[in-house]
Amino acid sequence: MDKTQADAIAQAILEPDLRAQEEIRLKRAREDADLARKRRVAVFVLIGSSIGAAIAYYLDYRFTLGIIWGGLAGSVVGWLITRRAA
Question: Which of 8, 34, 36, 60 has its CA 20 to 30 A from that of 43?
Answer without folding.
Answer: 60
